[in-house]
Backbone:
């Protein structure tokens, strides 16, 4: 395999030497390091590498490049190497200058480059390498060649093979898929036990699962499917951002905490290929990475997790709540946090539903993007997740079309995403439109779009359709008398009526539901702000209300008994 390239451009020979030294010292064993002093030399290398099929992983351009603004050169990279990561190299303190600050802000906002990196100082410059290594990891993951990659082999894109891809996505596991009759598929099948049943999952440690159940997938990925005890202080239902946040704060404060999810971790956040407006991640972070980090954080604090199990019942039994799990039966607790989030609304077009996994997908495009190079892709949705998906797919697809019911992208999407979309040549927005039909022979080939205003319809060629529309709360299993709004979202706090499931001498706490001791956080809650940061905030707030609930009920959490003393941080 030809080594991918790290390309650096700086017209100052001495400063370029500093960059070359750091890149060679740390990365030369696995990458070709190419350093040039002019944009014209850089363009020649970009063209030659593209013609010979050599991948460029990272391009660094210094602001001192005189022939053309560095941000302009980095923008050109996308035309010939759409998957390359790109960074503007600046000197320490330069961002305080208005011109430099504006170039960074405008360049990132308009998608001309991904981020900036400080010039290396005294060797080894670990701050420089932290940025470079992070960007290289992002490049490897985007190209489906990340460390710890899980491979799925199936006879077709649909059916059980698609369900297994969804299960691994729910577990926040980096994976790729190949057909059994492809070169890669034949090699993986040949290495599996003779006569192995498809679909196969091949793990990095050599383990091979033959047509496994979702529970087997979760266990192989390191998750638990059954609780280790039956008594808890708090049971959190849902492992999306709100549930994971509650797990981190609950476990860190000494509560015996159980998190249950019918899938894996991350919820709808895993549909976000890059979240750029989440606090503390200036280069952005994918929903999968955020979920995996939060899960690890909660687990280290002692939270228990149960995956691939649904909650089928919630009742009060005396001073306890009983939560019934689909496979493990009942578990008991003092308080419950509902963090089930919401699911994407179905399109309900039978001809397209029949092609789920064969060009039609609900949710994130991250595991499918590399297979769509040079294709025409459509996305239905007008919120941030749809915008993030469009920008991610634009690096691979020939064209990306956003189909949006509203008459403006700004009606439901953050400004930073709208700006990047408007600056990306191969993304088009079909406003005031909806998908009403489509089909293909075994795989998606065309869609039918309707203009909502004129009611006219048009057929368009399409190789893939990603549906990220609306939100339906996962509350169907709750008791019939549990208070919800017309759409099924859970009422909390002041929205709860005076009719409560047991008499209390107090009003419900801010996030408390109509059932005392049961709280709701994140997208499942009526009136919630549909943003990852808001869900995380509500998850942490719910734990603080738990403290007040225990005090009001004059109860002592089991996790902070004398047998298990914990110090509050």
Residues:
């Amino acid at each position: 395999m030809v080594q991918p390239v790290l390309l650096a451009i700086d017209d100052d020979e001495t400063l370029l030497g500093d960059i070359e030294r750091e890149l060679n010292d740390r990365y030369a064993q696995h990458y070709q390091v190419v350093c040039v002093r002019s944009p014209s030399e850089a363009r020649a290398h970009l063209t030659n590498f593209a013609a010979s099929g050599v991948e460029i992983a990272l391009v660094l351009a210094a602001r001192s490049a005189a022939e053309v603004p560095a941000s302009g050169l980095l923008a050109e990279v996308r035309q010939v190497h759409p998957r390359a990561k790109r960074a503007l190299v600046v000197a320490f303190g330069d961002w305080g200058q208005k011109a430099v600050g504006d170039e960074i802000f405008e360049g990132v906002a308009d998608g001309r480059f991904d981020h900036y990196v400080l010039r290396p100082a005294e060797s080894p410059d670990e701050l420089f390498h932290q940025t470079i290594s992070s960007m290289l990891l992002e490049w490897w993951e985007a190209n489906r060649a990340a460390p710890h990659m899980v491979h799925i082999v199936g006879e077709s894109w649909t059916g059980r093979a698609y369900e297994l891809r969804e299960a691994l996505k729910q577990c926040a596991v980096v994976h790729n898929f190949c057909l059994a009759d492809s070169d890669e598929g034949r090699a993986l099948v040949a290495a599996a036990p003779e006569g192995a049943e498809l679909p196969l999952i091949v793990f990095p440690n050599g383990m091979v699962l033959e047509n496994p159940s979702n529970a087997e997938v979760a266990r192989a990925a390191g998750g638990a499917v059954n609780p280790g005890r039956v008594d808890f202080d708090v049971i959190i239902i849902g492992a999306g951002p709100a549930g994971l946040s509650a797990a981190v704060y609950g476990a860190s404060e000494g509560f015996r905490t159980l998190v249950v999810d019918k899938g894996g971790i991350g919820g709808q956040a895993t549909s976000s290929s890059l979240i750029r407006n989440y606090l503390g991640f200036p280069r952005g972070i994918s929903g999968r990475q955020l979920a995996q980090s939060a899960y690890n954080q909660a687990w280290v604090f002692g939270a228990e997790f149960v995956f691939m199990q649904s909650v089928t019942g919630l009742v009060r039994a005396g001073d306890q709540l009983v939560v019934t799990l689909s496979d493990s039966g009942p578990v008991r607790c003092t308080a419950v946090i509902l963090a089930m989030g919401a699911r994407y609304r179905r399109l309900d077009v039978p001809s397209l539903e029949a092609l789920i996994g064969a060009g039609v997908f609900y949710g994130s495009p991250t595991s499918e993007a590399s297979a769509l190079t040079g294709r025409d892709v459509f996305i239905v949705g007008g919120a941030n997740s749809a915008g993030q998906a469009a920008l991610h797919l634009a690096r691979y697809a020939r064209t990306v079309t956003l189909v949006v019911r509203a008459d403006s992208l700004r009606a439901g999407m953050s400004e930073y995403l709208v700006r990047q979309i408007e600056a990306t040549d191969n993304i088009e927005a079909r406003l005031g439109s909806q998908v009403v039909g489509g089909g293909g022979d075994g795989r998606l080939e065309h869609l039918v779009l309707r203009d909502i205003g004129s009611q006219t319809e048009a057929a368009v060629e399409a190789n893939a359709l990603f549906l990220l529309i609306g939100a339906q709360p996962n509350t169907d299993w709750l008791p019939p008398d549990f208070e919800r709004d017309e759409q099924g979202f859970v009422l909390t706090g002041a929205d709860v009526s005076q009719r409560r499931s047991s008499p209390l001498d107090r009003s419900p706490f801010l996030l408390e539901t109509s059932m005392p001791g049961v709280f709701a956080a994140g997208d499942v809650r009526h009136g919630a702000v549909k943003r990852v940061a808001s869900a995380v905030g509500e998850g942490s707030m719910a734990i603080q209300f738990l403290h007040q609930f225990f005090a009001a009920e004059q109860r002592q959490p089991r996790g902070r008994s004398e047998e298990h003393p914990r110090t509050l941080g």
The CA atoms of residues 433 and 452 lie 5 Å apart. Confidence is low (pLDDT under 50) at residues 560-569. The two ends are 50 Å apart (CA to CA). The longest helix spans residues 532-553.
